[in-house]
Predict the structure.
Amino acid sequence: MSARDDPASRFAASLRRWLPTSARTRVFDPAHEELRARHIDSATGGFRAHVDLLALWLDCWRLALTSRSSRGAEQTPVAVRHNKSRLAPPHGGNRPSPERFARTNIMQTLLNEFRYAARALRASPGFTAIAVITLGIGIGINAAIFSVVDTFLFRDLQGIDQPDEIIWVMTRTEQMSLLLNQSFPNYLDLRETNQVFESMVAYGPASVGISREDGGADRMMVASTSDNFFEALGVDAAEGRMFTAAEVETEGAPAVMALSHDTWLSRFGGNRDLVGRTLDVNGVPVTLAGVADPEFLGIETMLGVEAYMPTTTIQQVSPGTSAVGTRRAGGFRVLGRLADGVSIGEAQQAMDVLAAELERDFPIDNEDLAIALLPEKQGRPDPSVGGGFAGIATVFMGMVGLVLAIACANVASIVLARSMGRDKEFAVRSAIGASRSRLFAQLASESLILGVSGGLVGVALAAWGTAGVRGIVAQWQIGIPLRLPISVDLRLALFSVALAMLSALVAGALPALRGVRTDLSAVLNEGGRGSSAGPARQRLRRLIVVGQVAVSVVLLIVAGLFIRSVQNARNADLGFRVDNHLLVNVDPGLVDYTGEPLSLWYDELLDRARALPAVRSAALTSSMPFGIRLGFSNIFAEGRDPEAALEFSPFFRVSPDYLETAQTRLLQGRDLTTADRADSVSVALVNEQMAKLYWPDEDPLGKRFSTTGDDGPWLEVVGVVENGKYMLIWEAPGPAVFTPFAQSVPGTATLLLHTEGNPLLAATEVRQLVAELDARVPMFDVRDGASFLQYGRALMGVRLASTLVTAFGLVGIALAAIGLYGVIAYSVSQRTREFGVRVAMGAATGSLMRLVLRQGLMWMLPGALLGLVAAFAVSRLVANLLVGTSPTDPIAYLGGGLVVVLIAIAASLVPALRAARVDPAEALRSE
Amino acid sequence: MNLPPITHLQFLILSQALTDELSGREMRERLAAHGVRRTLAAFYQLMSRLEESGLIEGRYVAKAIKGQSVRERRYAVTTAGQEAYEATCRFYRVQVDTRSQEARG
C-alpha cells in the first residue's frame, strides 16, 4: 500500500473536500499531517485514525463557524474587551428577537418530528434493518463503481500544475485503430516549431536493473524524460532536487535519477541519506538527485513509474534501448500544455501542418505521419486506446444504476407496505390535530433517517468494495508495475443518499399519505383488517415488483453472458498450453550482456534448467503470447506486392524445444533446432493463418519472407504451427512468426519450464541457478502458467467484468427476491381470513400452497417477460465485450429466466407455508 | 509608548521559535509545558493567523516515519515577528524600569 493510499488518508481527503476552502489548507492540512505522523509513530491506525480525523473535521467546522468571535482570542486583551463591548446587544438581556424565536420554533418542531420518526423506526426494527441494508447495498455498489470510474475518467492528475491544459500528442496510423507514441526527434521538432503549445514534454518507459546490497539486481520501471519534464509539468522535489539544466541538456553529463515518492518509501525505506549518493544502475553509477513530490503519481492512471531519468542518462545506462536518436522508432509519450487562448481544434490544425512538414522533410521515416491530439482525461487509462474505457464505464454505471433502482424500488415497496398498516396511527394523529403537512413531515423524516443510515452503510460497503477492486488489480501480473489509486467518492455517496431518500419519499411516503384516511371512527370500526385504500397501494407495490423483476432479469442475463464469456475464454484454444509450467523472466541485457556473451549466458541457463530434476522440458522465448514485451513486425513475402505486406504481426524469437515445452502443435515441416545458429541460414516457423494468407494453394515450406522490406534479408519457412491467440483472447486468427532465438538474441527473455508436479516448487532452484550464473542479472515475474493466464493480460479484463457483473446480478436478484417476498407475505397476511375459511371448508394444505405459489409466479411473470425483452436490447450494448458468446446466447437467457423462476418460488415458499398452516378457528376469531 | 502589537500567547509562540525552526508538534509540546493547551485545529488556526500577519513563516518538510512519508509543517520567526517580539520586550522593560524608578524615588 502506498503512503497516500491508506484508508485513513483517503478518508481525510474525502473529509477535506467538505470544508470551507480557507480551513482546508490553513488548518486541516497541517493538523492532518501531524495526526498522521502521530498515528504512524504510535502504530495506531484504522478505526482510531478515522475517529481522530472526524473529530478534527468537526473542530475545523466549529472554528470556521465561530471564527469571528474566536478571532478575539489572538488579539490583545484590550482589543478583546473593546470587541466584546461592541458586540453586546444594545437592549441587554438574553431575550431572542421575534425572527430568532420563529426560527427556533421551526427547528424545535423539526427536531420533534425527527425524534418521533426515529422512535417509529426503532419500533419496527425488521423493516428498518431491511430498508437500511437494501439502500446500503444499492448505494455502496454505486459509490464503489463510480469511484473506479472517477479515478479513470474524471479526477484531475495530481501533483502537476493546471492538469486540465494537458493534451496527449500521439501519432495516428491508417492501418491500426491504435494511437502510437512519437519518436524523440519528431517530438523535438514539433516542440521547436509549434506555436500552439506553451510547453511540450516527452517520456518513454524503460526498464533498468538496480543493484541490491546483496549483489543481486532488481528490475525497475523508469521513465526516460525530456529535459523540461518536471519544470513544464510543475513537479517539485520532496527531497533533494529535480534535474539541473546541465544534467538534462548536455550529452555525457553525469548520470542522475529521481525516484517517485512511493518507490523511495517502498524500496529504499524513505532513507534521506540516499539523496545525493550514487546507485548502481545497469552497472553505471547514477546519482540520486532527489525524490518527487508525494502528490505526483505519474501521468498515466495505472502505470506505476518508479523512477525518472533524463534521456541523457538513459543513453548512458541503456545505450541500446533508448531510441532517442531514431526518428523511425516511436517509444515516447508526448504531452503538450495548450498556450493561452488556443483551442484543441486550433492546435490540431497546427499539428496537421507540422506533420505534413515533417513528412516532407523525412519522407522515409515519417511516411503517412498524422498527429492526433487527445485531452489527457480522454486518454485514460492508456492514450493508445484512448476513449475505450468510457464505453465500458457506461455499461458498468448503467448496471449499478439498475441495482440502485431495484434497491430504491424495494425501499419504496416496503415503505408503502408499512404505510398500509399505519392508517390507525395516522388517523389518531390527525384526530388530535396533526395537519397533513405534519404527517408528511413525519414520513419525510423517516425517509431522511433511512436515507442517511443507508448512506452510511453504503459508504462502508463502498470502502470494502474499492478495496476488493484494488485487490483484484493487485493480482494482475502484466509485467509492469500497476497502481490503482481509487478511493470512495463521497459526492456520489451523498447523491445516492439523496436519490434513495427521494425515491422512498416519492414512491413510498407520498402515495401512502394520499391514501391515508383521517376519519378515525371509520378506521377504528374496520378493526385490524387494513384499510379500503389498501388495494390501490397494493397494486402500486405489484407494479414495483414487476419493475424489479424485469431489471433483475436484465442483470442476470447480462451476468450470464459474461460468465459464458469467461468460460469460453478459459476453454479457448490458445495455441499453447502452460497448465504445468513455470515462467521466469530474466534480463541479462540490463547488465551489459550483448552479442556472443549474451548468447552463451542463455545457453548455459537453458542447459542448467533442463538438468533440474523437476523439469520435463525448457525453452526460451523473447515473449510469451499476451506478454507485455510481445514484438511485432511487418511481413513482406518474396515475390509479392510490398503494398500487401502484413502489418504488425506478432513475432517471437524462440529456442529449440519451444514447441514441445509450450505444447504448440507442429503441423508441417520441422521444428527449430540447435543447428539454427546465428551463422546459418535464417529460418522461421509460421502459423497456419500466415501460410493461408500468403501461400493459400502452395506448399509454404521453403517460401521466403522478410521483416524489413521487399528486398530481404530473407527468412525461409521451415515449418508451420497451429494458430494461436497472441494479443487478445477474442482475436480472430492472425499471422504469427517464430524465428530461432540464436539468430537474434533478445536482451530480455522468458524461460518457460514444463515441470513435474507443482511448477512453483521449481522456482527456488531456478532463482539459485540464475544467481549462480550471474547474481547481477534481474529476475522478475516468476509465476506458474495458471496465474499467467488467470491474472495476466489474457483474461484479466474479462474476469474483472465477469466478477463485477455477476455480483451486480446476484445483488439485484437478492433485492428483487426481498421485494417479491414482501408483497406476497403481505398479500397472505391480508387473506388470512380467506385461508381460514378455505381450511374450514376442507381445503388441502397442498392446494393452499399451490394457490400462493401460483400467485407469486403470476406476479413475477410479467416482470420476467418484460426483462427478457429489455435484456435483448441491453445485451447488444455489451456485445463487443463478450468473448465467443452471442448477445442472444440461449443458455444465458434460459439460465437467467430459470434463476428468476426459482427465486420467485423461494420468495413465495415461506408465505405459502404460512398460508397452509392457518388455523381456521384462530383466523376467524382474530376478525 | 503604545501597547505591544501581540498577545501573550503570540509572544510565547514567537519566543519559542526565535532561534530554532519548530514543527507544529514541537511547538504544541512547548506551549503545553506553559499550560497552553489547544485542540489541533485551534492550534493550526492560531499559527495560520500568525503566518497571515507575517510574524512567522511556515513550510512543509517531508520526513519518513517507520518507512512512511509524512509532511510536517515547520515554523520560523520572520523579521517582522522578531521586531514584534523585541517591541513587546521593550514595552515591558520600559514599564518595569519606570515603575522601579518611581518606587526608588
In short: Residues 68-101, 527-533 of chain A have pLDDT under 50 and may be disordered. Residues 223 and 308 of chain A are 5 Å apart (CA to CA). Chain A touches chain B through 42 residues (CB under 8 Å).
